[in-house]
Design brief:
Radius of gyration: 17 Å
Structural class: mainly alpha
Shape: globular
Strand content: under 5%
Order of helices and strands: HHHEEEHHHHH
Number of helices: 8
Number of domains: 1
Number of strands: 3
Strand order of the largest sheet: 1-2-3
Helix content: 25-40%
Length: about 190
């Protein structure tokens, strides 16, 4: 079964193939769920290529530390609940559940093994992911002792907020430990 057929069988609207930029495009009466596809180029709405994969390899990624990808559609903003003028949107690439399209250094969890709603409910407890949900990647480390000033300096040095996010999740915050700790706490509270 093709992806389009699967979505159609679940009443997910796929009539609009252009990027889901306008509110009227991503919410169509009678279709509370929608899907679309697009890419990231220098002139597209994403504001340039993400610092990932071939973009890094070919050195054509967005080198602008002032560009906050988290604060726009397909960034992290609103991934837990939606935001002003932005629908709730998460990224599932193969099996990796992420708050944004570029994806965090480690996935929040594995969609083959857990329900996405359960994963989102767990990470919603974390001040780190609450900060991403607000579109504030520079503040995501404050709850674990990483000052905003360090995040700003590292983003400047790395020239991209997504590269700071990778460094943060690689060096300062272990998603696996957070989820494992939460699951152990949840299991111990069961009768």
């Amino acid at each position: 079964m093709e992806l389009a057929e699967l979505f159609a069988s679940r009443n997910v609207n796929g009539d609009d193939k252009d990027p889901l930029i306008e509110k009227e495009t991503y919410l169509v009466k009678g279709h509370p769920l929608s899907w679309g596809y697009w890419g990231a180029t220098e002139d597209m709405w994403l504001g340039g290529n993400w610092a990932r994969g071939r973009s890094l390899e070919k050195n054509n990624w967005k080198k602008d530390p002032g560009h906050n990808f988290c604060s726009i559609l397909s960034g992290g903003i609103g991934f837990l609940s939606g935001a002003e003028g932005i629908p709730q949107e998460i990224s599932i690439q193969l099996w990796r559940i992420n708050p944004c399209c570029p994806g965090t250094y480690k996935a929040m969890r594995d969609a083959r093994k857990e329900k996405v709603a359960d994963v989102l409910a767990r990470v919603a407890e974390s001040p780190v992911f609450q900060s991403i949900n607000r579109g504030d990647p520079l503040g995501m480390g404050e709850s674990v002792g990483i000052p905003r000033e360090l995040a700003v300096a590292r983003t400047e040095d790395l020239q991209n907020v997504c590269l700071w996010c990778d460094e943060f999740f690689r060096d300062y915050f272990d998603v696996e430990k957070m989820v494992t700790k939460f699951m152990q706490t949840e299991d111990s509270s069961k009768p």
